[in-house]
Amino acid sequence: MKKLLIHSNGQLSIVGEGIDIAFKDVQTVQTDLPEGISNLDGLETAKEGSTVIVKHGGKEVAKVNFN
Amino acid sequence: MADFSNLEPIWSNYQQSSLRGRIGQRDILPRSVRARNLGVFIFGAESEEASTTMENGQQVFVTATITQNDEYEIFGHSYLSMYVGNIAVANLLPGGSSIDESQWDIIGPHFEFYKWSDTGFAKHKEITTIYVRNISAGSVTLTFRFKWRYISSSSEANRSF
What we know:
A: mainly beta, three-stranded antiparallel beta sheet, 0% helix, B: four-stranded antiparallel beta sheet, four-stranded antiparallel beta sheet, 1 helix
C-alpha cells in the first residue's frame, strides 16, 4: 500500500512498499494516502511556521506539525 | 538356516534397464527421460514506485528494501529507473532526450545483499540506495521505479518489502 511522506521542507513524496525517501537535514512524517489521491498531481503544500499543510484542490487533506 | 532360493531375485528399475546395455542410435528413447531441472520453479518480478517533489539544491536519499522468506530467492539485484516527471523514455535520468544531465548529481545506486537467517532455507535481504541532488532542474517531480526478479517454488510471492 502506498504512503504519503510529508517533509518539513514542504516537499511531498508518495512511496510504494519497502521504499523510503529522505531529504538531507529534513524531518519526514509518513501518513496514509488521503482518500482519492494516488499520485502527486494536484497536491500542494503551505507552511505556517513549523507546520506543513497539504492541500488538494484547495482543500486541506493533511497537516503535520514538525515541532 | 533360512533358505530363500524359492524367491525370484529383485531387480530395481535401474538394474533392469541397465541389463539392456546402452541405448542404440536406432532405439526408441525411454519415456521416463524428461527435463526435470527447475520444473517446479516460478520466475517472476516485483515492482514498486515512488515519487517526490524537488527544488533546486535539494538532496534526497532513496532506499528500497526487499526481504526474502522461505522458498523464495531474489534473483540478482534490483532494476532501477528514474524519471523527471512522468514515466516516459524521454524523461529517463540519465539518458532521456528531454533531460539535461548537468542539472543533476547522482551517487549510486548501491546494492547491499546479506543473509538474515541461516536456519533451514537461507534467507536474504537486499537494500538498494541512491542519492540524487537537484542542482538546477527547477521545481520537478522525480519518479523512481524499482523492479526485482525472483525464483520461487510457490505461486505466492513469499517476500516482504
